[in-house]
Amino acid sequence: PGSGAEGEAVSGAQLIAESLKAQDIKYMFGIVGIPVTEIAIAAQAIGIKYVGMRNEQAACYAASAVGYLTGRPGVCLVVSGPGFLHALGGMANATVNCWPLIVIGGSSDRNQETMGAFQEFPQVEAGRLYNKLSVRPSSLEVIPAVIEKAVRTSIYGRPGSCYIDIPGDFVNLQVNKSSVKYVECCPPPPVSMAERSAVSEAAFLITRSKQPLLIIGKGAAYSHAENNIRKLVDLSGLPFLPTPMAKGVVPDNHLNCVAAARSMALQHADVIILLGARLNWILHFGLPPRFRQDAKFIQIDICAEELGNNVRPAATLLGDINAVTKQLLEEFNERPFKYPSDSEWWKRLREKIMNNEERSKELALQKSLPMNYYTAFHHIRELIPKDCILVNEGANTMDIGRTMLPNYYPRQRLDAGTFGTMGVGLGFAIAAAMVAKDQTPEKRVVCIEGDSAFGFSGMEVETICRYNLPILIIVVNNNGIYTGLDADAWKEVLKSGDPSTCVPPVSLLPNSHYEEMMSAFGGKGYFVKTPEELQNALKASITDKQTPSLINVMIDPHSERKKQEFPWLTRSSL
Ligand code: ADP
Ligand code: MG
């Protein structure tokens, strides 16, 4: 704990910066303005990295990704009223994803409240719906304690977002250091373990299972459980299925990965082990017809309130995934178990995997122009580094990207997540590039966006260029949302009248040159239409490790996902 000499004064802005630093916060994203500019300056002066962005929403997505990637929250700094409101999407997305985040919002001066002050808004009240904690320090003296509590709350239990409201008059107000209540850095969350009887029950169910399935969720990725889960898979021989952001906890090319037989695995498994994945829409609520009526669930989660949602589990293991996985390993150490690789279940899964991979391969090798999604992704997969951090959003671009682009390392896929939020991509990419720069400078960030998804935060390209982050953005451009029109069809449509009455709501301007947004700010832009052009642009962007680049890939506006037995990332799947 720091304690200043008697008489030494400190400003609100400095106190906030010092307290964040004391809580081991390393990154701040935001947009400055009245009354928070001094906070950003103080943070930077003390060694917190500050990234000024172009919209608070993208800044908030960026800060939340830092929390997921590092386990320590990033901070989003916003001005009062509209600035705060723009960040709500990021707070909601973080909380729904179970990712830690700290948002600091300036608000009106206390003596102007209820008078119609500049950008006045009931921010603490509004923040409650989106945050685990939404508070305003009652005085400067308690700022360190409030910041410690917010950071602790964001990472203890089920992670989520926390909001701290700072009245404008606090920022330049001074107090004597001796009256400040300094607080030490909060330690990482205490590790909780499951009841022994529940662990034995789970092990028993697994041993008895004929058609077991291990589902790995992003909670497992967040808890850094990869080494133990990998051991569990290798030791037990269980088939496993990662949810989208859990890809890479165990590498996608592991022999036991049944992602390519997803529907079948879910539909016929008799015992399902959930490692940090909720039975929400992503997993069809755990209910028929996607699951067997008599399927037995073994649920492992850190959040007690999650246990039993939608389905009554056969075994509930409340605890930290990494610790509970270790408990399961110990149980299997005492009573060795290996699920036979020559079982009927494995035979059926393997067959399905082969068939499905064959179908994707056929589509990927089609020679016709414009390219379809599978062809574009095939070339992208061939040329991007195996260890790159993948950001992927859009409708088809994300769904097909998930199946076509393998992950070999944990926490290296960031997408629209549980909330299905489009527009997260550029913020996530910026956060990933900032973290990579400090931790794994050789790692590239590749951000693959649908043309619609890219549009939500396109101006962050300027941010990328300003901070010289060597991100590769690939816009998979089909001239629209889900599908679009080609240039000829577009001309025809315009003939029929006012665009607002005849342009299909899914359409975007055909052949938009998004790559020029990148060249406008000094990065490299490529407009590509053929596989050869795509390959050349990819090679050039990957080789150049310094310059941000954007490859605008024109694909067939009618290209779609291959027929699904069970479409799931669409509302119609319900
Ligand atoms: P996915 O989208 O991959 O299915 P979800 O976000 O639905 O994953 O589920 C993640 C789950 O992981 C949440 O229920 C959350 O409470 C849980 N979780 C987060 N961190 C931990 C942890 N350290 N140990 C156990 N469970 C965790
Ligand atoms: Mg599109």
From TrEMBL:
Cofactors required: Mg(2+); thiamine diphosphate
Entries under PANTHER family matching the protein: 2-HYDROXYACYL-COA LYASE, 2-HYDROXYACYL-COA LYASE 1
Localisation per UniProt entry: Peroxisome
Thiamine pyrophosphate enzyme N-terminal TPP-binding domain location: 11-124
Cellular component terms per the entry's GO annotation: peroxisome
Record pathway: Lipid metabolism; fatty acid metabolism
Coiled coil: none
Keywords associated with the record: Fatty acid metabolism, Lipid metabolism, Lyase, Magnesium, Metal-binding, Peroxisome, Phosphoprotein, Thiamine pyrophosphate
Complex and partners: Homotetramer.
Key word Lyase present: yes
Entry protein name: 2-hydroxyacyl-CoA lyase 1
Main location: other
Lineage: Eukaryota, Metazoa, Chordata, Craniata, Vertebrata
An example Gene Ontology biological process: fatty acid alpha-oxidation
GO molecular function, one term: thiamine pyrophosphate binding
InterPro entries: DHS-like_NAD/FAD-binding_dom (IPR029035), HACL1-like (IPR045025), THDP-binding (IPR029061), Thiamin_PyroP_enz_cen_dom (IPR012000), Thiamin_PyroP_enz_TPP-bd_dom (IPR012001), TPP_enzyme_TPP-bd (IPR011766)
Residue ranges constituting the Thiamine pyrophosphate enzyme central domain according to the UniProt record: 199-328
Source domain of life: Eukaryota
Organism (species): Patagioenas fasciata monilis
Annotated catalysed reactions: 2-hydroxy-3-methylhexadecanoyl-CoA = 2-methylpentadecanal + formyl-CoA; a 2-hydroxy-3-methyl fatty acyl-CoA = a 2-methyl-branched fatty aldehyde + formyl-CoA; an (R)-2-hydroxy-long-chain-fatty acyl-CoA = a long-chain fatty aldehyde + formyl-CoA; 2-hydroxyoctadecanoyl-CoA = heptadecanal + formyl-CoA
Similarity field: Belongs to the TPP enzyme family.
